Amino acid sequence: MKPLIAALALLGAAQAGTAQAADPAIDDATLRADAQGVFEPIPQAPDPAPAPAQAELGKMLFFEPRLSEAHNISCNTCHNLSTGGVDNSSVSLGHRWQKGGRNSPTVLNSAYNFAQFWDGRAANLIEQAGGPMQNPVEMASNPNHVVEMLKAIPGYAPVFATAFPDAADPVTFENATTAIAAFEDTLITPNAPFDRWLQGDDAAMTEEQKQGLSLFMSEGCSACHNGMNIGGNS
User: Fold this and answer.
1) How far is residue 221's CA from residue 110's CA, in Å, rounded to a whole number?
2) Which terminus, N or C, of the chain has the lesser number of Cβ atoms within 10 Å?
3) pLDDT tens-place string over residues 152-198
4) Residue range 90-138, pLDDT digits in tens
5) What pLDDT was estimated at residue 21?
6) SS3 call for 99
7) Three-state DSSP state, 16
8) CA–CA separation, 156 vs 146, rounded Å?
């Protein structure tokens, strides 16, 4: 822990502009070779790319509060895209102001998680999208009510038909969750400084950040926190 505290002190000194003796400069080539064996940059685009019509429908549904029993909670309520895909609360509030048992994980780059939810109980984003809608503490609805509601809103029928042209009955709960997952597939954040550095841009990270990365790996943090998302893959 002490080396990690030292790395944080270096970063704090750099931010504050105070003088502090720095460790020897990091050799980018050596550190990068080690890091590339542990981490991966976020891709420039989703692969495979979701069907555009499904992603567009999913975007509508992601912001749709009428998916909840009380018509006041959407996916974006807890996974707010304006605040990093989370609600910045220790636990999220759901139906009738009930408190959930955990805070909301970010939806950004969630397509690259090994499984979904903090406990990994959903295998993929399609399963995850249906969970909160049916949870009595969260959105408190159910598949039948969701479908009835969507079919009662005239604007949704043609959008579902475009997104699922081969379906005899496009407006289904499964298609709704599939569309939400397709939209979430697009919520990726390529070209972060760490990603650019992994790809060869030495100037993308500061010396203090490189020292912190070196400690992060040498102290064993990367044994669990690795891959594209620096976690979420085991």
Assistant:
1) 21
2) N
3) 999 999 999 999 999 999 999 999 999 999 999 999 999 999 999 99
4) 999 999 999 999 999 999 999 999 999 999 999 999 999 999 999 999 9
5) 46
6) strand
7) helix
8) 12
Choose among 207, 222, 229, 223: nearest CA to 7. 207
Contact 57, 49 (CB under 8 A): no
Determine the Cα–Cα distance for residues 171 and 156; give it in Å rounded to an integer: 8
Fill in the amino acid letter for 104. Answer: S
How many helices (H) and strands (E) are present in the chain, helices listed first? 10, 0
* CA–CA gap between residue 207 and residue 210 (Å, rounded): 5
Token digits for 203? Answer: 């100037």
User: Residue 155 carries which side chain, given as an amino acid letter?
Assistant: G
User: Is-contact 91 103, C-beta < 8 A?
Assistant: yes
From CA 85, how far away is CA 94, in angstroms rounded?
Answer: 16
The one-letter amino acid code at 227 reads G
Name the DSSP letter for residue 122.
B
* The two three-digit tokens of residue 87, written as one number: 């609600």
Active-site residue set: 138
User: Amino acid letter at 82?
Assistant: S
Instruction: Record the pTM.
Output: 0.86
- To the nearest 10°, the Cα dihedral for 93, 98, 99, 104? -40
- According to DSSP, residue 173 is labeled H
